[in-house]
Prior knowledge:
Chain A is α+β, with helices and mostly antiparallel strands. In chain A, 44% of the residues lie in helices and 15% in strands. The model of chain A has no long low-confidence stretch (mean pLDDT 92).
Amino acid sequence: MPEIEDSCHELLLRLAGRLPDRQLWRLRDWLAGGALDALARALPLTLLRERVAITARESLLLNAALLDAGADAGRLHAVPWVDQIDEVDYTFTSESPERVNTGDSEAVVLGAVLHGRPELVDVRGSWRRHRSGLGPATRIVLVTATAGCARLTGELQRVLRALGTHEPGVEVMPEGIDLPPYHQAALAASEPLLPGMVVRQG
Amino acid sequence: MTQVPRGSRPGVALPVRIHDLLLSLAGRLDDDALADARQMLASAELDRSLEFAAGCLVAGRVMLTKNQQRDLESLFADTYLDPAVIDRLVVRDPAPSVHHRFAIGAVEGQEPDRGVAEAVRPVLDVLPDVRSVWCVWRLSPAGPVSGPVPHRVVLIGVGPGGFAPATAYRVEYALRRAGIRASVEVLVDGNQPTDYHQEAMRCARQVPFDEPGSGDMPRMSPAEPVRAQAFGGERRYDQPVEPAEPVPAESRRVLPQPVDLPRAEAPADLGTDTGHTLPPPIELPQASPPAVPPVQLRGGAGAAAELAPPIELHRADPDSLPTPPRGAFPPPVELRPVEPVERTLPPPMELRRPDEPEPGPGLPPPVDLHAARGDRTVPPPNPAEQTAVFAQERLPDEPGDEPAGLPPSALRMDTPTNSRPSPRRRAKSKDATRPRLMPAGKDGHAAAFGDDILNTQERSLLRELQDELARREQEDHGSTSSSTWSGRHGKFDSTRSSGPVVINGVQPNPEGRGYPPAT
């Protein structure tokens, strides 16, 4: 079961920036809440409706995670493939021009929540904006952890929602995985979210 | 939208049942989950909406009552969903009550209805039977993945003519586009509200979304079903909800009106309904209507003078025709050559100049707009000829009865199709099994025009032309109207002088009498 959860979490991690935030955070919340069977029914249909193609690696994860959980095999096989994902529709910056002179209460709360957790490797933050320049900048919380990534994702999402972010962007990356371009770009333009927090250096 | 009137609530549409279930989950699920589920519901994705709600309930370990669980199971069964997802629902009866706190008035200096009226007014103008809108701040979190608080809740009361799922989605969408985050709870008048909605209504503030004076109207609470006057009584869609006196269904029904094809499709080169006079160049030769010089027919008209009245809308019966003196007349077929000047009319309604050459033989059927208005220029044909003419005019009953190669005519229009329009008449199919477009009429008049090819509009046009022809025949005996009329349909033209005018080449009566309206 943990393997299935990890596979599903990695799959949802790789879909960042390709599925709408409104759906992605909900699917991750379901995974964190243990509703794998509901996720298995909703995710293939969502991919088909949103016309999201997946790579061969993601297809393996999809089948490994959801086929036994009740996903419709026909829908799974209908999801189109793509060779690789090398384009990101977003740009990342370390600072948000909209929050220059405001207090960062989110960082305060996240620091309180994450304090003393042994599985954490790093916690960083970045600001994402669509390439078109439209829409507000979205905070992306980048967490590197050694275990319990799905559960930690759900937890941080709930915290951010309570603080006013309706569609939170929380990316909890298992340590040592091959990161997709979205996360590489986000990490490249990130800064430590909790400057005074001591985390394990991986 | 899919309607499945069965299950635990027979007769209640599935979307309504799902909407009611979502209403009962308000305050237990997070507001975004309810909004998403309602969006799917309004988009006719019933199964997806149910699965989404179930996923949120399972993931959040939301406690349900047994009634809610039964409703959910029934809805899953009715939409053919796998019930395995809801097997792990947490059910407890009675479920622990969830008490929510709502603010009375403003929170942090912001009124709950701020900007709401402006944002939802365009939507409410088109949504039916919306009776009231209320706003309130909710201070307590809802669901395990709650968003921030205070959270604005918009309560909408709709009558039985409203569509709750559509109203909830469209109002929420309009608010979101205006930058207002809110949960939209649509309560149908007469339904028992939940504790959550009753508590919200106790603190809510009504939004005057209609005319400026509507704020003085008596308050109505959707949580306390109101059946009296509808909110915004001046709105046009409020009236059918609870009419003061029920109108019989027959009287409300819009009866099909006869198609006014000739008026609608009047050619531009003719005088139109706007009352324009006919252009002078195409004014027909002047002839004194009553005393038209007889046209010398090839068959000799004298023997036919005692025949039947001129207008015969029936198929020509050769036996009923008078037998001409032996040897004096050609056979009846050769009587046809009436071939009046008016026969050449590819553009069916086009009037011909007097100096226009006579058309060649084998041209379209005699009854057409030319015949309708050109009858003043030529002498009334021999009754036998008229009989023959109308015999030609009748539409073929049997396949193959219609001569091929007819020119386009408004009376013989092809059955309209969605394909590329063709200016030419297609050759009639010889297939006798061609489906009928219209059931044959029962009266003899309709039977005379019961061709499959004619649709209702064409028949109406043909009928109108014949009526007009008959009317013109009666006009020959004198007209009585003194008004100024012009145009091919006799519309009154105030711009014209009040003097007598020439209509269709017919000189006015010398005594100054005008023409009666050809209505």
